[in-house]
Amino acid sequence: MELIDIGCNLTHESFDADRDEVITRAQQVGVVQMMVTGASEHGSIKALDIVRERPGILFATAGVHPHLASEFNPETEAVLRELCDQREVVAVGETGLDYFRDFSPREHQRHAFERQLEIAVDCGKPLFLHQRDAHADFIAILREFRDRLHEVVVHCFTGTQAEMHECLELDCHIGITGWICDERRGTHMQDYMADIPANRLMIETDAPYLKPRNLRPKVKSHRNEPCWLPWIAGTLAACREETPEQLAKQSTANARAFFRLPTQAAAAEA
Fold first, then answer.
1. Torsion 118-119-121-127 (CA) sign
2. Lower Cβ count inside 10 Å, N or C end of the chain?
3. CATH number for the 3-269 domain, one of 1.10.10.10, 3.20.20.140, 3.40.1000.70, 3.30.390.10?
4. Contact 161, 185 (CB under 8 A)
5. What letter does residue 70 receive in the DSSP assignment?
C-alpha cells in the first residue's frame, strides 16, 4: 500500500534529533509522501527548509495556527505570501479557529483566519484548516469565502456528524487522524465515517500529536510518527467497511489530486 500523510508537524522540536530516521521509518511502511505543516511564521519557514532536503517526498504548508493568531501582523502576512509562492509549499495553513483553549482572543483568531483565506484566494492554492469548538463561526467565515477558494480540507476532523455534513456541503475534504483510534473520545465518529464520500477522504497523523491508542504492540513513547499512518488507515477502513487497500488507494489518489502532487516516479525524474 502507498499512503500519504497530509499533516505531520516534522518541524516540532521532538524530531530535531532523529528527523531523518522518522522519515525513513515512514517510508519503510509505505508512507510515500508527507505534508509538513506550517503553523507559525517561523514554523512555516522551517517547514520549507525541511522539505527542500527531501524533494518529491516532503511538501510544506504555510500558515499561522489559531493558537498563535495574536502574533499575526502585516509582516507575518507578507512572509506567508512569499512562502506560498514557492512550489514546495502546496497549501495555505494551518489556519482556522480554536475556541477550546482560546490561547489567542477570538477576535484575533477570526482576523488571522480571514487574512489567510485572502492569501489562499490570491495564490490559488488549497487550504489546510483547523477547527475545534468553533464550528458556527468557522463555517460562517468559510461560507463567505468559499466561492473564491480552490480546494479545502478540514484537517483532524473531530466534530459531530451534522458538523461534518456542513463541511461536506461546502465542498470540503475531510482529514482523519488517530483520534479515530482513541476509545476515550473518538468512538462517536466511527458511526458516521462511511458518510464521507470516497473522493473527499484523506488521512494524517498530526505527528507528534495524537498517537493511535490502538497500536499493537504498544509503544512506550508518547510521540506520534508518520510510520503509524497504516494503523489509522486500518481503523478507518474498518469503520467504513472497506479493506485497508481500498482506503489507501483512494485516499492517496485524493491527496495527490488535492495538493497537486507528482507521483514518486515523476518526482524522481524531475
1. negative
2. C
3. 3.20.20.140
4. no
5. G
Separation CA 176–CA 165 (nearest Å): 14
How far is the C-alpha of 170 from the C-alpha of 192, rounded, in Å? 18
E strand or H helix at 60: strand 58-62
Confidence band (pLDDT; 50, 70, 90) for 243?
very high
Residue 12 to residue 194: CA distance in whole angstroms: 32
pLDDT tens digits, residue range 24-71? 999 999 999 999 999 999 999 999 999 999 999 999 999 999 999 999
Helix ranges (H only) for the chain are 19-28, 41-51, 74-84, 106-123, 135-145, 161-169, 187-190, 229-239, 244-259, 264-269
Return mean pLDDT, the chain: 96
Burial class (CB in 10 A: 0-12, 13-18, 19+), 131: buried
Where b means 16+ CB within 10 Å and e means fewer, 88-115 reads bbbbbbbbbbbbeeeebeeebbbebbeb
pTM: 0.96
Q: What is the pLDDT of residue 267?
A: 59
Average pLDDT over residues 164-179: 98
CA 267 to chain centre: 21
User: What is the residue type of 15?
Assistant: F
Longest dimension (CA), the chain: 48
